[in-house]
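Per-record layout

source: Triticum aestivum
name: DUF6598 domain-containing protein
length: 248
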Amino acid sequence: MSVKIAAIKECLRWPLQVFGLVAARDNLDHMRNIIFHRSRNNCQTITEEDPYLALTGPSRAIAVSVDPSYVEVSLKVKGATKAEDKDLSDLVFVHRTGLFPSGLYPSRLSTLELAFDHVTRSVEATICVKLIDGSWPTGFGGVITASSSSRDDLKVKLLDSGDDGLPVDANGVIKLSRCVVSVGHVESLNVYVTAGRVDEKQVVESGRATFTAQRAGVSLSELCLGFCSMNVCDTRVFIWIFLKDFFF
């Protein structure tokens, strides 16, 4: 799933300081499955050159069946004061088997472009990446993505550290922005790590770990860059594989 601010009204100017919520509900538990959530004090800067929301979810695959699933959007633009905040978009739309919500959605002061990809008969993977040797160098940003073997061109961004360096805790575990992806049960899952100098915006090192889809279990793969090695852990859960479809 991707959410793009495709157009804004004349009363707004790029860049935008955006905060708010994008969430989904399905018939598995009817609870909000958070896809994007930012407070007013933690806005995302959206530019005309990069108009996509940095999604942090869903926390699990969203079930799609004959029963309706719902996606709700409530986004605001931060003003100089709270009273000057503006409603950017307020939407609720339905998704079910045979009804595909990808497209343009005008609302309030913007038009959003939503895109979804369906993964039928899927398994869900939770990704963990840990530094096991060496260290991440100062002045390097990192990008971690995942894709299925059948759609390697469609990469889900798990982390883009930007100019802030890689977020690594005391145990070497990298804090991903999102960690759940879905792949078809007969496919492979690819996890890519790229590193580049922050000041040059150029990829210096890259690596890939590949996992074969299984019904359940944990797999480890070592991924080596020039200055460090990482363990990539893939935990798969077999969920409703012949009863439900999922999108992510």
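summary: Confidence is low (pLDDT under 50) at residues 236-248. The chain has two domains: 2-115, 122-244.
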